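Per-record layout

source: Fundulus heteroclitus
name: Junctional adhesion molecule A
length: 281
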Amino acid sequence: MKVLLLLVGILLHGSLQVQQVLQVKEGDPLVLLPCEYPTFEVDNATVVWTRSDLTPSTVHRRQEHRDELKDQNQLYEGRTSMKAEALEKGELDLTLTRLQLSDTGIYSCSIRDIREELRRTQVELLVDGGFPTWATVLLVLLCLLVLCVSGGLLFHFRTYFKEEYRVPLEYGVDFVLLPCRTTARLPEGVRVEWTDEDNRMVHVYEGGTDQTEEQNRFYKNRTLMEKKLKSGDLSLTLKHPTDEDENIYTCSVLSKDRDVLVKKRVHLQIRGPKKQRSSFI
């Protein structure tokens, strides 16, 4: 029986071995390098995992019931293991943990008895570095920077995107600003209308001038709109606000064909003691 096994071993050793390729990523917890041989039929069997491109070349050695790691390459210290019953069952797989880029290479699994090598198989291991750590850190920092900048811009231009504003104001101030801003590119010749909840005309701007004749008398001489159509700022200043000015105001931008291009609402809430209502209707 031993002579037959020896002859089989010689034939296997002399034949071409199929090379298996395993691909993993740097940082993966472990990989299993496969190797099988009926070592349970061999007296004093030893299995040695090696890499010929390293010095020393030993990755892992197991014989009888224990590991022999005195000649193990330092790159693999504490990172290799085999089953306790590997030689008894012929399951000679090598477990390699905490994968590194330097683990890339061709690993040989050699089975020997006290006289000679019975079989040798090879496994190629490719460790993909993936996205470099420094690049990952840089990407995270760039993302944080973009978030900070975009957040700051959104905060700065927040009134350009809102459809409705709430403006609280302590009573007794000289004026209040009713915000109306847009990012839309406005064409030439638009008409800007400010109206209140009672549909009274608060302010009208068209053709480059204020249309005071269309304004409700309650707001006469109390409104001012800066001409900033190109920047999208259509805000209205309301002078000498009183509790009667507490209202919901609508800012509408109309095209020459009277299509509504922009519409925003401003809820003005006057705070403080009430003043006697005026006689304006």
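summary: Residues 1-16, 153-161, 276-281 have pLDDT under 50 and may be disordered. The domain at 158-271 is CATH 2.60.40.10 (Immunoglobulin-like).
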